[in-house]
Design goal:
Largest sheet of chain A: 7 strands, mixed
Distance between the termini of chain A: 39 Å
Oligomer: homodimer
Number of helices of chain A: 6
Number of domains of chain A: 2
Number of strands of chain A: 10
Order of helices and strands of chain A: EEEEHEEHEHEHHEEH
DNA sequence: CCAAAAGTGTTCTAGTTACACCCATGA
DNA sequence: TCATGGGTGTAACTAGAACACTTTTGG
């Protein structure tokens, strides 16, 4: 088959912004780059797109290589393509952000890549334009989590309302009234109260909840304002 | 300088979903593809990214080539990269959507590319995965316009409230109460009432408004629901 | 028994909706 | 003068915000 003539071909990489939450603060999974340039410097996990794979596929592969996890929440974020963003050779980077339960991450695997979790507000310097990518991911997450039930991806299957609140408070760097917060969350009908409690973080113990999966899928839409009844009109 | 070895390089294209509104319905600007494969079939305006340009730059260049317009609203949408989306050769497509005042579009320029406006709900078949791109752009626009003052990009500098309402009603395929609609729009404080009227579409005439540019920039944020006072926390 | 965290209700306010008539004008 | 589209106000309702005390239990 003919090719398009007279055009320049470039490398396409996928970079993953992998976010977790440890109950205290948001964490970002970084690796120490194993090859030049910027060897030993901290970097997002990434890789080149292979000939027979699509972009989502590449992102999933890269994520699995690093964490051993499949079926992680993964969403395409933005594509970065300044001509000299990688000094070695022109590389267009398609970024994805991932949300995962930090406890599922298997520590030993990280050794292969010298991977480490860093608090989002206390990170080392990153190579290239990776810091801009992280910034963008943070903004997207704040934006999206305000509208869609999304942050559960960061928690284990069973979680408590106080945990959930800490998650939101961490993301927005604010404190919310727990009465209003709980009411609002529960009013979505997305949660199923369990009969057992988490006694880890208090003497009284907090009831566990699970997501109602079927409702989760259907209620992914949102609540907006510029038009009347906007939720009728929005696709996720 | 060394290159990364053992990796495949691919073409990177930028495709633009160019939207306009003619007072009646939303329109999409398509071109008749001038080269094989799929020659003569309808397609989004696109082009390959050149060695010394970034992605946004490429999108702006492509848009200007087709319309002669600069400073058009342009936003990166999504990157498509299935291995065989272009049967000739692997091409990763970074899509942008553009909103422009359809009246500014200079018809004669379109001749070079056999460009034509098509109603969004009555389009010819498109090549490759371009239809999926258009769908995604529609969804993004619905989503975003519900939260941000964005649709003004489709109108001339001076516009009337009934025009604005038609714009929203067209996008959401719904009708809104004009009293409530006007109140809500005006309450944003984004509009400056002019002293002259548009007499084109009615005998009485409708007052023109202009955007208050300074407020437009500052009020780009939104109004949400999952957290209290979400507008405090959102970057556009 | 007490410190620490979980859980729960009510009032007030602001925003959203529903709804119907008068106005200005050109033909 | 009348048909057409532009413009306006109010009342009822709903959702969001502010606010403080009681419960449980491990140490």
């Amino acid at each position: 088959m003919m090719k398009y003539s007279g055009q320049t071909r470039v490398l396409v990489a996928v970079d993953c912004i992998i976010l977790g939450f440890d109950g205290e603060s948001y964490k970002l999974l970084l690796i120490q780059r194993g090859f030049a340039p910027e060897k030993k410097k901290w970097s997002l996990m990434g890789g080149f797109v292979q000939p027979q794979e699509g972009l989502d596929e590449a992102a999933n592969r890269i994520l699995e290589e690093l964490t051993g996890l499949k079926n992680v929440y993964l969403e395409q974020l933005h594509t970065f393509g300044s001509p000299h963003r990688d000094p070695v050779e022109r590389t267009v980077a398609v970024t994805y952000f991932a949300l995962l339960d930090i406890q599922k991450y298997e520590k030993q695997l990280s050794q292969d890549y010298h991977a480490e979790w860093f608090p989002l507000n206390d990170m080392p310097e990153l190579i290239f334009d990776h810091m801009a990518m992280v910034e963008m991911a943070k903004n997207r997450l704040r934006y999206k989590a305000a509208l869609h039930p999304l942050l559960f991806e960061l928690l284990p299957e069973k979680f408590t309302l106080p945990q959930l609140q800490a998650l939101y408070e961490g993301l927005y760097e604010a404190t919310f009234d727990k009465r209003n917060f709980n009411r609002k969350l529960l009013s979505t009908g997305l949660f199923v109260k369990q009969h057992d409690k988490d006694k880890e973080s208090s003497k009284k113990g907090a009831f566990f909840y699970k997501l109602d999966q079927s409702k989760y899928i259907n209620n992914f839409q949102a609540f907006l304002k510029f038009i009347p009844n906007p939720e009728k009109f929005l696709a996720p």
